[in-house]
Amino acid sequence: MYSKNGENFFIVDAHVALWDARPENQLNIHGKQFIDCFYDYHRNLSPESELWPYEDYLYYGGERLMKDLFEDGYVDHAIFQPAYLSAFYRTGFGQTEEAFALTQKNPDKLTYNHCFDPRYEQAGLDQLRRDAERFGLKGVKLYTAEWHDKSRGYKLNDPWTYKYFEACQELGIKNIHVHKGPTIRPLDRDAFDVADVDAAATDFTELNFVVEHCGLPRLEDFCWIATQEPNVHAGLAVAMPFIHTRPRYFAQIIGELLYWLGEDRIQFSSDYALWTPKWLIERFVDFQIPADMTEYPQITLAQKKKILGLNAASMYGIEVPAGLGVAEPAVV
Questions:
Q1: From CA 77, how far away is CA 66, in angstroms rounded?
Q2: Of the candidates 129, 141, 152, the residue with the CA atom closest to the CA atom of residue 179
Q3: In this structure, are residues 46 and 78 in contact, taking their beta carbons and an 8 Å threshold?
Q4: 105, 78, 73, 90: which is closest to 18 by C-alpha?
Q5: CB atoms within 10 A of CB 160
């Protein structure tokens, strides 16, 4: 929990990872390219005081994750959103067994989402059913630009993806988190395009589509889709650190999201370990739209509380302690 000026904020970090990008886990040059690009994002968008040494960044482990999120970072609950990247890493980039073990040990603090790739067709669909039972899945994370054999991406409205969404509905996996944001070397930028969100959200109204990174750099395209599709949500991973390097750009991002989607469909995420949540939370609570950006209203306290945790808590059925919600307006 974070407290400031007598106000308490229930924090859900809706997008965290536990990865292993050490040289011994890199399958080829692309594994190094990927983590180097991650580190460039970290280095270029972080305050100097928050920079990690490169070697620490390659692998940090569960003990540090727990400290950075829950001891130092004010987080009440966090949700793993793993990327597998089997074409680049021997045991995968996101560490399934370590992350799931942490979740089992700390079920009040952690939720584990898994991943699937529809290009595995029936074998992958069978695996999804086993994973849903083993992990108790409420959500999955999809990387539409991930490589598989000679394929360098897939779409949410591909026929096999639809078969997986049908299975998700059947299995109670309601929350579909999709990386639709900046590219990461060597992945292809166009494979992260947001256009396929439109058809999938229309055809699967029982599912929530959380567009991670809110479509950046395609914010306008994303907003026009999301305003028409009430089951499309915005994840603020990658958008958040612009609060430091380009605060007016961040003001535009959050202003547009509030205008088009409203306060109930935006979720805070640090994208740990690209960034740690502590400084992002502190700065967001203090943040306001610059006075001269008059087309955007000021962000209210209730909106900040919803974005920082209440929205994701509602989506995942996470219990919010009494007194940490948003007070309902009095009935006159």
A1: 11
A2: 141
A3: no
A4: 78
A5: 16
Other C-beta atoms within 10 Å of 68: how many? 20
Q: Give the pairing of strands 7-9 and 2-4.
A: antiparallel
- Give the strand order in the sheet containing 266-267: 114-115, 139-142, 175-179, 208-212, 232-235, 266-267
Kindly give the pairing relationship between strand 139-142 and strand 175-179: parallel
Query: Over its length of 332 residues, how does the chain's per-residue pLDDT go in tens digits?
Result: 999 999 999 999 999 999 999 999 999 999 999 999 999 999 999 999 999 999 999 999 999 999 999 999 999 999 999 999 999 999 999 999 999 999 999 999 999 999 999 999 999 999 999 999 999 999 999 999 999 999 999 999 999 999 999 999 999 999 999 999 988 999 998 999 999 999 999 999 999 999 999 999 999 999 999 999 999 999 999 999 999 999 999 999 999 999 999 999 999 999 999 999 999 999 999 999 999 999 999 999 999 999 999 999 999 999 999 989 886 554 34
Coil, helix or strand at residue 300: coil
Q: Which helix (H) or strand (E) holds 240?
A: none
CA–CA separation, 233 and 176 (whole Å) = 10
Residue 205's alpha-carbon distances to 113, 197, 211, 218, in angstroms, are: 20, 12, 15, 23
Report CA-CA distances (Å) from 304 to 75, 211, 287: 15, 19, 10
**Rg for the chain, CA atoms, rounded:** 19
Phi, psi of 271 (to 5 degrees): 60, 30
Element (H, E) at 43: helix 29-45
DSSP 99-114: HHHHHHH-TTTEEE-E
71 token code pair: 């001891």
**213 Rama sector, left if φ>0, alpha if ψ -120 to 50, beta otherwise:** left
Among 172, 144, 161, 146, smallest CA distance to 200 is for 161
CA–CA dist 183, 217 (Å, integer): 9
d(CA 137, CA 25): 26
Q: Of 271, 270, 277, which Cα lies nearest the Cα of 94?
A: 271
